[in-house]
Amino acid sequence: MTSNNINRLKSLTTISLVLIVLISFAYRSLRADKGIVGKRLPEKKEMLVKDAPINGSEINVPLRDSIVSFGMDLVGTPYVEAGCSRDGFDCSGFVYFVFQHFKIQVPRSSSQFDNFGKEIAIESVKKGDVLLFLSPTRNVIGHLGIVSNPKGMESDFIHATSGRDMKVIISSLKQRGYTRRFVKAIRVL
């Protein structure tokens, strides 16, 4: 190796070390601005608040918020019989679409929710739980929605209605029509 090559190698090494020091300094400054100097940065999953264990596994609370937020973004989407896309939803198509977005498997048909998930007391509902209602014309599960604001029998929920509004809306369980037809709340997470 010639002395010219050795000098180039030394220069590259020096430049590399200077870059490493600068990057390290910038990183530490950034961490100091955020008040986390000397702290180990937690992995993303550690930054999530844990919910109560269900069947031995923990659910991340932010997942519930994300489900509700995604559902809220769909408010105003038209009601379409058998619809399951941003072009339009029926009630079970809406719930299916929202949960599928988070890779959570749920039934596609409202009647299949009758024996799905874990039944919970209405006083224990949380965001992302599902409310089941009787059909307005038959004695079977015929409507469902996702809890967006848990308050027991006054909980708000997002759903696709075939009623007067004919779109995805937010309703309250305290409304007489929904109170009368309410069957149960289930946890699918």
Automatic annotation (TrEMBL):
Where does the source fall among the domains of life? Bacteria
Keywords (A to Z) from UniProt: Hydrolase, Protease, Thiol protease
Organism, per UniProt? Flavobacterium frigoris
Q: Name one Pfam family in it.
A: NLPC_P60
Upper classification of the source organism reads: Bacteria, Pseudomonadati, Bacteroidota, Flavobacteriia, Flavobacteriales
Per the record, the GO terms for biological process are: proteolysis
Q: Which family does it belong to?
A: Belongs to the peptidase C40 family.
Q: Which GO terms describe its molecular function?
A: cysteine-type peptidase activity
What name has this protein been given in UniProt?
A: Cell wall-associated hydrolase, NlpC family
Can you give the residue ranges of the NlpC/P60 domain?
A: 61-189
Q: Which InterPro entries match?
A: NLP_P60_dom, Papain-like_cys_pep_sf, Peptidase_C40
